[in-house]
Amino acid sequence: MATPPRKFSRIQPELRREHLVAATLRCLAENGHAGVSVRKIAAAADVSIGLINHYYPSIDQLISHAYETLSGGIADGLLKASEAGTDPRDSLSRFIAESFGPAILDPKMLGVWVVFWSMVRHSADMAAVQQRTYGQYRAALERHLGALAEQKGLPAMNVRAAATALNALLDGLWLTWCLNPADFSVAEGVAMCEGWVDAFAAGLFVERLKA
């Protein structure tokens, strides 16, 4: 006897897209690059391939939306945490602490990010998301570092470069920890970044970062 066609529930388009994005992220986390497949994502979401194509005419659009959802959520968390600071130094400490929080420091998500980064160079949509979210991170760090430099009375310097350096330190530690959490503890990672900010506040980078 033929198997009856599977029935799919009718839900609001935005909820459906959220469901598909969540399934995409799970699929990429479990399968890496092999998860960039409409068939696998459809199975993970328990929907038909045709339904995915209805909402996302191309797999690149779905992956791009998943990238924006994940990146945007992290950016929102970092910005909200840092904006709650009582002064520039406290804002930076909150940004650093959030960067080492469980929402970001998750080894299971490393494969997802590797897929995203590999697609940035070949997809205008992915590149736009990367530039937008990276710009948000750096702008927040630049704002807080600039305010800290002013508070400490430091000479004029290239605060944008300082923000890029701190962001690179955070990214590098995140990657190292995700590859092997035994390399250092979360507390040690936070301490490394806090030490960098202390050195910045003490003016140790002024000569290197002349405006």
Order of helices and strands: HHHHHHHHH
Beta-strand content estimate: under 5%
Low-confidence stretches: 5-9
Through-space gap between termini: 77 Å
Structural class: mainly alpha
Number of helices: 9
Query: Based on CA inertia axes, which overall geometry fits?
Result: elongated
**Biggest beta-sheet profile:** none
Proportion of residues in helical segments:
over 70%
Please state the CA-atom Rg, rounded to the nearest Å: 21 Å
Overall average residue pLDDT: 91
Instruction: Give the tally of β-strands.
Output: 0
Write up this protein.
By secondary structure, this protein is mainly α. Helices cover 70% and strands 0% of the residues. It has 9 helices and no strands. Helix 1 crosses helix 6 and helix 7 packs across helix 8. The longest helix is centred in the middle third of the chain and has 29 residues. It is elongated and about 60 Å long. The protein starts with 12 loop residues before the first helix and ends in a 10-residue tail after the last helix. About 2% of the residues have low confidence.
Gist?
With 211 residues, the chain is mostly helical. The chain is 70% helix and 0% strand.
Note the topology:
Layout: H1 13-31, H2 38-45, H3 49-55, H4 59-83, H5 88-99, H6 110-120, H7 124-152, H8 159-179, H9 186-201
Helix pairs in contact: 1-2, 1-4, 1-6, 4-5, 4-7, 5-7, 5-9, 6-7, 7-8, 8-9
Pick out its properties.
211 residues, mainly alpha, 70% helix
